[in-house]
Amino acid sequence: MTVNPVPQLSIGPRAKALALSCLALGVIAFGASGTARANIDNFSFGSIEGVGTLKGKLSTRLGTASNSTEHRINIDDCELYAGGEIEVSVKIDPRPTGYQYAAAYAPPGKTCPVTDANPKATDGECYVPLSQRELTGTTIKFTVKLDQLIGNACDSNVEGSAKLYIIIQNTSLSRVQSQQISIDVDLRAPAAPVLDEVVPGDARFTAKWSDDENDSTTTEYVVYYGDAPFGEDDLEDIDSKSGITTTSYAVESGLSNDATYYVSVAARDESDNESALSNQLEVAPAETTDFWEAYVAGGGKDPGGFCFIATAAYGTPMEVELGTLRAFRDQVLMQSDAGRWMVSEYYEKGRFLAAYIADKPVLRALVRVMLVPLVWLAQVVLVAGPLATFGLGLLALYAYRRLRRRALSHPMLVQELR
Amino acid sequence: MARIPKALIALAPALVLVTGSARAESPRTMMLELHGGSYSPAVDAALDGATPWKDTFGAKSMTMLRMHLDYELWQEVGTLAIGAGFGYGWIDGKARDSAGEATSDSVGFNILPLQLSLVYRFDWAAQKYSVPLVPYAKVGLTGAFWWATDGKDSISNTQVSGDAREGRGLTLGWHVAGGLMFLLDIFSSSMAAGFDNESGVNNSYIFAEFQHSQVDDFGSSKSLDLSDNALSFGLAFEF
Predict the structure, then answer these.
(1) Across the interface, do A302 and B98 touch by the CB < 8 Å criterion?
(2) Three-class SS of residue A15?
(3) A411 part of a folded domain
(4) Which of A165, B46, B83, B233 pairs as cysteine with B225 (C-beta 3.0–4.6 A)?
């Protein structure tokens, strides 16, 4: 709206540009001063500590440590903190000189004025523990009555943000800065989910539930189970699984077959408020047989595990593989002079190697693995015959030579070689 | 048009053939096959009356996906190649209770076969005369890693006479396969030429393959018998 008058001015283009520049600088300066007025320079959150009976008893949800950025009070906290006080400390470092300050707080849905360092206290809306104090140090500490800060009964279902205010003002009253610390007050418990079914398994069960009420992005669930029916008051004494973000969960440890378990589910919101328990269902896990168990029970002889390594490690013979090698020795190698020489050399020198590795399980396992291709080759020779294998070898040699020739004649490769 | 010599017009078809064949193909080096199919190991057949496979998984077959890559060693009357491949097959079933009835415990069996194959493809007619059918055969060795899972989706374990029996292992064997490939390039030779220019893929095929796998540690009676006759289908790219 300040731009419109500009064309009406009888000034040249250069002057017009200068005027627009000044206007822009003015806008920027205004914005900058506005920002400085909103936030206290060099401000940082210090800590929150319990006072009196609450000393050392505050929940970490309240964000008590100096690096905390989230502060939260849930229903349990509300009950724990009833009638209690906390001391809040903040820092302004380095400290500006010639300033006075005020500290105030307001419950959810209420606010305190931040126009000067003397905010007006209003019962139920704004509480002012400190006002118009001279800022002499870098740390400001003030006490907050938690009943006033929470401002609602613990079963009120209220959900909102309480605020702590720090306001500083210079002595000439020309500059006011303030800072807010929000504390989420969540006194609304999530709705209880509905436990649809609990499916038994082998020393396990799977609970499945539905939840149409709570926000699925922020809700977690807790599955409670015990070997007797239980209620809200028994939760500390029974088993549970928490931190579940899906609507089904399999409990797979610590269960016995043929025992009966009672299962309930509760929802937990991001403030750790827990819903009432869902309906309760019972389940009796029972032994089942999977494929491998059925195979073994049906007479399957595969020992399982990686047998040639395990066999080598445990020292029992690899019957099939050894049989193949023995057959290869007898049917192929022993049929020629060269083969007989190889067998003779092997028995003369190989036994030393065998004796050396005999008590070294790892080395034996390694040798067994290395023998696998040899066993395969022996099997091929025994099935296809030596001549066919020789033919295959020649074919492979021919292919290799052709491949090499082709690779060397490839223009790109030749170029690269050069 | 009138100024073009008649002799040149007469030679045009021949020129098209020559130039066409000259730019149509980059060198063929490898074949990549992507298989999808089913697999039913002969576990029960190797047992004396017991049918753990059928009891757990019913009449269903495993789903098997495989990949095979081979290097073409010889390209004269057909192509001879050596290749390797791997696959993954899986099946889910239900554990049984003491009465033999299916329970809600989901259990499974998984197989990861590794194969080394010698391949012969009779693609001479396809290369020479654009006949779109290429029969082929493979033979090679197989090593199949396998594992069975229990209701907790863990490797199944059981004990016999105090000895632990772990439901996983490696079974060796061999395979032989035959198949027929159909050359897709005939549907659009220009698209095929573009594919070759841009990606170096000379030929694209669909195929059906029948494979006999004898995966039982070469006849060992002490091994899980994973043999099967399986049909697979898929796409192949020669590049």
Answers:
(1) no
(2) helix
(3) no
(4) B46
